């Protein structure tokens, strides 16, 4: 491999990556697949870094210390500056729960593990994710995790398997790619966030840097390959959308497109697309692309957060202009001064200052987490209302390997340490959220029981969830474990079935929820109601066969917007909430297929606990009552909401 020469077309390709990302995040509908710009960055990164370190390894002067110094000089100054600004802005604008979430993000972004945090919390396209100012740092974390092990692997291959270097990297790339296109059907979030499923994108760029395929020999080949690559990127940007299964196979379009453009420019001869990308405006946009990537997303989040709505065109344009200006400033006065061996700070001092700042950021983030977002900084009214939401749930977890093997969780309820358990709460995350109500009543009435919950799984026997035609999680197996638990604990005489029934029976969600439909068959939501009915029949029949008193607890109303965040912001900013709670008739319409199914089995021995008279007493459902907020998000009860609902269960155990 020859020396690495500057290629203006690659800076131009960075522009092609960042422009769709920014416009997609701003809400430009034409750029529905703009998120693929991150994949283009991965390919570029793999190419450039491999070009540099492979040459150093071949020449025998590669240094891990120098490699990570370059990464620190490239990434840390602008990132740390943005983090400081985000913390300051968040301290003024964010209500306690949101600032606590931001504090967690600060820890994760500083430790380059943001992808792991957001993978654990939610999906990239979820509404809650749209209010996280450091969400975009997930891609930096993926890259840095990749570069922890990649130089070691490359060095070992050069030393021990030099003739098979490309073959081994191709094998690793194929394993990562096949894993990605497989796992995306079962866990799209895992495929999106975890480095093992993204490694193939960086390795695709790396293989081009290693010249495992000779450079194009004719202008015709270069032009044709570059045009094909550009077309693939355009297809991904303008045709893919949030509804597309991504990454998986759909990530091939932007990645292969970027790879073909880079490959077409190998050998020192520009392609037709390379000449276009070498145009000065494209190159300049590429030069500021890292700073623009860092700045645009927090600006969008904070603007939306303050306005409590989506941006209108003039606001989108304003945010775009400010993002570009900040990126130019950041590139010129923060990024560039630290670049190269002669950059600001000597090598020892660079490592020391970086380590010290990381410690400070992580300590500040942990403090924000454990103090529930420094709630004392809020006005008294906001602080007191926030306290009704952010108290920890008082449920004690238990160990049961059979329940936990399938993703379930088990908790102790009531006077568990002194009374033999006699009741069971069985359901999904709504059962967990309602658990404190059954715990409170159990303690009051000197009864004890268990709570078994599995997020996203209804307590319906034989029912699984599907995504893109494939089983997403083992709901049926989890419920079989609950059946075995009931059979092994004959002292259980009462069971409360709790779940978000409406979303399982309908399949669809409320318009404000940016999450995929809930599908109970491989054929789509059109058969949800039928599967729901069969699962309900089997569940009720099983419980009846054991002569267990069964209570079917109806849904709490789903609100469709984040209750604590919106209401606390309204009080903090002294404005009326932009949304209203659902009407009783809207709630009843959502529950219609559930009630139809219950009516089919009215001859069975069970009772329904209807929550609507309590939660929707005047024709409009409640989101706050008696001085507290009833929800912790848009559909789960808060600890205060569970206390509010506890009166429904008095005398039923």
Automatic annotation (TrEMBL):
GO molecular function: acyltransferase activity, transferring groups other than amino-acyl groups; hydrolase activity
GO biological process, one term: lipopolysaccharide biosynthetic process
Source taxon at top rank: Bacteria
Sequence intervals crossing the membrane: 12-28, 34-54, 75-95, 145-161, 168-186, 192-212, 224-241, 247-265, 277-297, 317-334, 355-374
Residue ranges of every copy of the Acyltransferase domain listed in the record: 9-328
InterPro entries attached to this UniProt entry: Acyl_transf_3_dom (IPR002656), Acyltransferase_3 (IPR050879), SGNH (IPR043968)
A Gene Ontology cellular-component term: membrane
Record keywords, A-Z: Acyltransferase, Hydrolase, Membrane, Transferase, Transmembrane, Transmembrane helix
Chain ranges of the SGNH domain: 418-650
Protein name: Peptidoglycan/LPS O-acetylase OafA/YrhL, contains acyltransferase and SGNH-hydrolase domains
Species: Mariprofundus aestuarium
């Amino acid at each position: 491999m020859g020396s690495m020469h500057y290629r203006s077309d690659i800076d131009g390709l960075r522009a092609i990556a960042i422009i769709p990302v920014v416009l997609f995040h701003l809400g430009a509908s034409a750029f529905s697949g703009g998120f693929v710009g991150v994949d283009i960055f991965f390919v570029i990164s793999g190419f450039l870094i491999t070009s540099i370190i492979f040459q150093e390894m071949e020449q025998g002067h590669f240094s891990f210390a120098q490699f990570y110094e370059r990464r620190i000089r490239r990434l840390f100054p602008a990132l740390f500056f943005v983090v400081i600004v985000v913390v300051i802005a968040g301290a003024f604008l964010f209500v306690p729960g949101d600032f606590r979430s931001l504090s967690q993000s600060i820890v994760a972004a500083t430790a380059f593990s943001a992808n792991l945090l957001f993978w654990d919390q939610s999906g990239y396209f979820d509404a809650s994710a749209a209010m996280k100012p450091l969400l975009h740092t997930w891609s930096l974390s993926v890259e840095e995790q990749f570069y922890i092990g990649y130089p070691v692997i490359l060095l070992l291959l050069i030393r021990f398997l030099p003739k098979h270097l490309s073959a081994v990297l191709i094998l690793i790339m194929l394993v990562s790619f096949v894993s990605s296109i497989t796992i995306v059907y079962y866990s799209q979030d895992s495929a999106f966030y975890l480095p093992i499923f993204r490694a193939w994108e960086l390795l695709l760029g790396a293989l081009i840097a290693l010249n495992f395929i000779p450079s194009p020999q004719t202008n015709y080949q270069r032009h044709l390959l570059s045009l094909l690559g550009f077309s693939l990127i355009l297809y991904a940007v303008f045709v893919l959308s949030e509804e597309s299964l991504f990454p998986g196979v759909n990530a091939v379009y932007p990645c292969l497109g970027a790879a073909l453009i880079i490959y077409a420019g190998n050998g020192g001869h520009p392609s037709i697309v390379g000449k276009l990308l070498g145009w000065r405006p494209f190159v300049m946009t590429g030069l500021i692309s890292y700073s623009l990537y860092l700045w645009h997303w927090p600006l969008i989040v904070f603007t939306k957060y303050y306005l409590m709505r989506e941006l209108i065109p003039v606001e989108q344009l304003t945010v775009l202009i400010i993002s570009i200006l900040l990126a130019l400033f950041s590139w010129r006065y923060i990024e560039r001064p630290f670049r190269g061996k002669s950059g600001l700070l000597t090598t020892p001092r660079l490592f020391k200052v970086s380590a010290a700042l990381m410690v400070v950021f992580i300590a500040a983030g942990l403090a924000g987490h454990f103090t529930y977002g420094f709630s004392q900084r809020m006005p008294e009214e906001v602080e007191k209302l926030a306290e009704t939401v952010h108290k920890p749930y008082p449920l004690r977890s238990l160990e049961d390997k059979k329940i936990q093997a399938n993703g379930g969780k088990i908790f102790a309820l009531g006077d568990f340490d002194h009374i033999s358990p006699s009741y069971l709460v069985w359901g999904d995350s709504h059962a967990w959220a309602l658990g404190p109500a059954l715990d409170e009543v159990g303690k009051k009435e000197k009864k004890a029981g268990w709570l078994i919950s599995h997020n996203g799984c209804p307590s319906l026997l034989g029912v699984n969830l599907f995504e893109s035609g494939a089983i997403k999680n083992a709901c049926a197996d989890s419920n079989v474990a609950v059946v075995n638990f009931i059979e092994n604990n004959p002292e259980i005489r009462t069971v409360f079935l709790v779940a978000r029934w409406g979303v399982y029976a309908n399949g669809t969600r409320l318009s404000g929820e940016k999450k995929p439909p809930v599908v109970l068959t491989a054929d789509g939501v059109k058969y949800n109601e039928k599967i729901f009915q069969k699962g309900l029949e089997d569940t009720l029949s099983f419980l009846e066969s054991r002569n267990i008193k069964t209570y079917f607890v109806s849904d709490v109303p789903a609100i469709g917007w984040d209750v604590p965040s919106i209401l606390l912001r309204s009080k903090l900013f002294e404005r009326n909430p932009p949304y209203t709670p659902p009407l009783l008739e809207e709630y009843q319409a959502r529950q219609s297929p559930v009630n139809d199914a219950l009516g089919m089995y009215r001859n069975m021995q069970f009772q329904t606990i209807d929550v609507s008279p309590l939660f929707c007493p005047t024709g409009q459902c409640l989101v706050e009552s008696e001085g507290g907020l009833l929800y912790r998000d848009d559909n789960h009860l808060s600890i205060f909401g569970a206390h509010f609902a506890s009166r429904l269960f008095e005398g039923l155990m």
